[in-house]
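Morning F.,

Quick status update on the modeling queue. The single chain you submitted on Monday has been processed. Sequence for confirmation:
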Amino acid sequence: MPDAAPHSGSASLREKLGKLGIDDESGLILHLPLRYEDETHLHPIHDLPEGRTVQVEGVITRSEIAYRPRRQLVCRVEDGSGALTMRFLNFYGSQARAYVAGRRVRLLGEARSGFFGIEMVHPRCRIVGEQEPLADALTPVYPTTAGLSSETLRRLIRQMLQRREDDGDPQRHLGETLPDAVLQRHQLQGFRESVLFLHQPPPDARVDSLRERTHPAWRRIKFDELLAQQLSMRLHHRQRRTHHAPPLPAKGSLTGALLDSLPFALTGAQERAYAEIGRDLAADHPMQRLLQGDVGCGKTIVAALAISQAIENGYQAALMAPTEILAEQHHRKLTDWLGPLLAPLDAAIVRLSGGQKKKQRQAALAAIGEERALLAVGTHALFQEMVGFGRLGLAIIDEQHRFGVHQRLTLRMKGATGGTMPHQLMMSATPIPRTLSMSYYADLDVSVIDELPPGRSPVATRLVADTRRGEIIERVREACREGKQAYWVCPLIEESEALQLKTAIETHETLKQEFHDLKIGLAHGRLPPREKSAVMEAFQRGEIQLLVATTVIEVGVDVPNASLMVIEHAERMGLSQLHQLRGRVGRGSETSVCILLYQKPLSATARERLRIIFEHHDGFEIARRDLQLRGPGEFLGARQSGVPMLRFADLERDADLLDAARAAAEELLGSHPASANRHIQRWLGRKSEYLRA
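Structure tokens below.
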């Protein structure tokens, strides 16, 4: 780290700092405290507030190593107002030799009532002299890593702040990046003032505002962080528009024929989404649009219209899905819709997946390379090296959060020729909360389908304890005897000693013994692809009444006659997964039920998840609650690779700052590009290089 840690020396220290994300001077300054300790005051022992971390000073009057109930160092400390016991359950010999009777010590720790009165267990203790001055600022406690203490970080940061005036460029690290007009409009205090306050808060600072991060200094830091993210994503968006893509205007020949052939009318939301996509496809720069909507809202037909628009312009399209089951379903639907329309063109729709026989695979690859296949549907196999598209104009990625940045880019590069990139449409049935869409997805254009097609029946959700399993079995028997179909979902394939959950294989065997008169199928991720396809097709044809499955059926399975779902160990699953699974029923006109079987005792988090899924059916609201529970890192999945993550701002609590940062980003990019560049460099540094990827 150049200049960041004078006199710090070794590469080892640099490596440890690197683990904390500190690789330059700005990183050190922006390594802000987790919390603060108050060493500016001394509390009399007789009046210590219990349960709070406080500082006391006194003289050790007795010190001994006790052996009951276990070996420990016990010292009696008195300050004239009272006495407390200082106890070390783990200690070094040097401590026993240092903490002897007559020594004056200053302790910082949590006071609590013990068997022998007030005590502090493992306080921070140091030997002091008479009248030794107290700290003149609150003591910051920094995030650390193994082998790097908070004290070392305090020293390095203090050195950095002290040399700010002496390094020949006082604006280099603490200088202002924002124009006065932006500061005044959003009522922000200066960056320098904010950083110095947070690293060295005065004794009279309001600790609650620091702890809750509501102080104006924290507000400035969070605004700056959100602004850096907005600037980087906006620049990414602008940069993409400098690339070239084949214009694919709507000609109406194939898209019109497709609309005329459908047995249903598009909803208003579907029409609006396709209009937005259609305009993007007609442009000469690459579309990068996210189509999102709740389970069952009809995203696939919108994708089919986009595919038709690409094909009627003489280009190929590819649709990639994360699972073979979903890829097969897309292939089946798109063949039903587009197959008859493409037949006069002597064009094919092919499927490409890892589970295909070699002959099928070679035929599909040849059709793609020779441009006889105008649409290729598949899994990860689509972006493998041997796949070569003749004229790929549109790449569609379903359940995009299941693919990494580089996987999505690799598929897109299949159509990159002579500086021209294909258009890209990403789809997600996991609705993205507004604040997440405004921040981590700010580089994308977003279309939302916010209404369900008519005729969809609501799904009733029931929470049932595992102890009532017998009642649920009878409920399933009754539904299947009435001609309906049911799912029984298990979270694991085979026994796990760690989790002790019901498995799909075990449950399948148990239910076969319970239901002698029913045809029961089994589907899980380790089945050979052809077996899995055969089971799913039999279930779709109604030949299987009850399907026992893992979460492999989470996305894409569409069986209108399936109106009952039982989910084992629902308390172990995330909100998004539960909502996706529940969306597999309620796809016909029958009233459907989703039963969430849970096992006691429930953790507080599991109880909250089950409460949310029971009370809410709107995917956007569920996603918002999910974001609150999990945070953006887990929610984003693979997208977080290469995207600047937030350290200080909270998307829900700081939504007002997010709105302000979005507005400020546009202003800086339009009127103050130099300020925008300085701001990005301060906050992202080398991380901003991903913008050029």
